[in-house]
Write a structure and sequence with these properties.
The structure is a homotrimer of 270-residue chains. The first copy, chain A, contains eleven helices and eleven strands. By secondary structure, chain A is an alpha/beta fold. Chain A has one domain (3-268): UDP-N-acetylmuramoyl-L-alanine:D-glutamate ligase (3-Layer(aba) Sandwich), CATH 3.40.1190.20. The first copy, chain A, has a nine-stranded mixed sheet, sandwiched between helices. A two-stranded antiparallel sheet of chain A has the order 6-7. In chain A, helix 8 crosses helix 9 (213-237). The first copy, chain A, starts with a helix and ends with a strand. Chains in contact: A-B, A-C, B-C. Chain A binds chain B through residues 16, 18, 23, 26-27, 30-31, 34-35, 39-45, 47-48, 51-52, 55-56, 69, 245-254, and chain B through 22-25, 27-28, 64-68, 94, 97-101, 135-138, 188-191, 238-243, 245-246. Chains A, B, C: GO terms for molecular function: ATP binding; hydroxyethylthiazole kinase activity; magnesium ion binding.
Chain lengths: 270, 270, 270
């Protein structure tokens, strides 16, 4: 299925994506989901996250502004999602920056089965054990053996692994995709990675139950491609980061399946 | 008093609106209040909410991202507001989506006297007992007897009740208003309902003390009309949700009393 | 060093600024830092703030939406910053509005050595003991002896003191600068003060270690001037607060050293 067809599927289903995300980008992530045609909900209370995750089409967890309460909320939502077959996307924002973030990422990934693990190249390098460098929440480099380590991790944990950056890598442990859409302005605004995590939730949220992992990977490839093509469109009318942010929501809203399919730069590596 | 005259009154008084709102929309709600000419303050600490509510012109409570701490903060702020005669607006975001939200809405409405209860048609249907459907935080329908149930609830609780949607219903238990301004783009951005809740605070915040409930209802009608006419203006220059959000703040800022009075579509039903 | 040269220094160093700020403006503050060329990180957990502050170039503390947890996070981050020689900027948002805010500002300033204290004229008046009026989070006036009181406070606490408003005052206890760039639209959006607090972090974050206090004051003067000149540029293309916000990020991003140096209105008073 081409990426544009996934976009149509998302718009038809209007999947409910339960986000537990950071306070920096909640508004942006919600607007990105609305713009693409999904239905975002943010809920954090331990008293309700299991109920909310159960009725969602996907759960998107982002550890940008972590606290012990948020970790617990993520674990409760994730366990509920696992129980009811709701896909889970996890974004280990800033892992490697502090010991606490490393512990949190370990706690979350050891108690929840993920469908997609997404981060920048530095974060994913650290998660999959190929090394990497994270300063604050910025990646400052990945090692050459990242793709191989991602594939190993994906196979061992039976999850899709996504490393985004100038180029984006996606793997289900078997196939590796290299995606080269996007625009430098995407890295001048906060929340573009976190918005993508939400979109990944929307796209894997419309995968038919009992599909093989490779179908989730294709949905992830489609989500990233849609987001990055929207970024390219937005850059055409933006003067800087502020107008780019507004134009990005406009572009997500108006994006068509044909536009995505024509612009898509997806390379299947093996 | 026409809606435009209420707008002038708000701009003259620059009412301080104490918001306890959700983390998705705090920025948007604050900017909407600034743009219309009010003064927003957000404060959540149990240690200060009673003090802040006491000096405010209105308190706007929104349970979008609820936690036990937030519920307590709302109750403390609301009790203080009730004690000092400060009007309270309550927005039961996502009621019906989880049992926890139902409990929270019950706890809040049973301990605080409201001046305005506002939600989408699904939320209000659940609050007033006419039924309704809420998925995540989206309303997916209201029953035909919503207006009658709203009037009953308004009379019993002596509060204005507002159900927003394609058309907006307002009642003080006696009169029912049907408002038909607005634009579909308002539902493509997060926080438009929550911003309106803040604006309702600003408008009821300038009602003279000891006014009858019907005066609060008129202030509510004016707030909704101003917001929706601004939405119509914004839609004329917007290309999609991103540019619409920016244009909406611009429109609120430049909105004139005459413009509102001319564009207003307000029908008094009985 | 001229303000434009400080801008170049910031862009070269891309300083990591650890923000503990309020939930209203986190997104805006992060985007302002990205736009100017710095690297923002937001981290609040008691378990990690000391680690994050230690690796940052500056720590920016803002008490906009205060809770006991946030106060503790600020103190832990501030103590770590003091220990490792990382500059600290503190913004006592809304001090004077409630007793709790006064207590919090006292607790924070008594346990952390600041490099820059920044607020609006009302907040700073209260902090430095010259009096002032704060309603909610808006300043409504400063006393005539504010500059003298600021200088006294700066000398006693060995910190730069900044009072922003229609004109901005900066002092290191010795010299007093009066800055008159800026635009009225800056006060129509929420978070412009808080964004400036973040930028102050970025600029003092590139001051060479063991520099005298006056160098920090010069960095502060540069940060304010860059921000306000960007505001002037943004106002030229904005129609209202919404488009101004977007244009402000664009302007920060495209701001050049020459542009700042030419537009700068900096008066050294004594």
């Amino acid at each position: 299925m081409k990426p544009g067809q996934w976009l149509i599927k998302v718009r038809d289903a209007r999947p409910l994506v339960h986000n537990i995300t950071n306070v920096v980008v909640t508004n942006v992530a919600a607007n990105a989901l609305l713009a693409i045609g999904a239905s975002p909900v943010m809920a954090y209370a331990h008293e309700e996250v299991a109920d909310m995750a159960k009725i969602a089409h996907a759960v998107a967890l982002n550890m940008g502004t972590l606290t012990p309460d948020v970790i617990t909320a993520m674990r409760l939502a994730g366990m509920s999602a696992n129980t009811y077959g709701v896909p889970v996307v996890f974004d280990p924002v800033g892992v490697g920056a502090t010991p606490y973030r490393n512990e949190a990422a370990f706690l979350i990934t050891s108690s929840i089965r993920l469908n997609v693990l997404r981060g920048n190249a530095g974060e994913i390098g650290l998660m999959v054990g190929s090394g990497g460098q994270v300063t604050g929440v910025d990646s400052s480099g990945a090692s050459a053996d990242l793709p191989a380590a991602m594939q190993m991790y994906a196979r061992q944990h039976r999850t899709v692994v996504v490393a985004t950056g100038e180029e984006d890598l996606v793997t289900d442990g078997d196939t590796l995709w290299r995606l080269t859409n996007g625009h430098p302005l995407l890295s001048t605004i906060t929340g573009s990675g976190c918005s993508l995590t939400g979109l990944l939730g929307a796209f894997v949220g419309v995968v038919d139950k009992d599909s093989p992992l490779t179908t989730y990977a294709q949905a992830a490839v489609a989500a990233i491609t849609c987001f990055n093509v929207a970024g390219e469109r937005a850059a055409q009318v933006a003067y800087g980061p502020g107008t780019f942010q507004a134009a990005l929501f406009d572009a997500l809203y108006h994006l068509t399946a044909d536009e995505v399919n024509e612009a898509a730069k997806i390379e299947q590596m093996d």
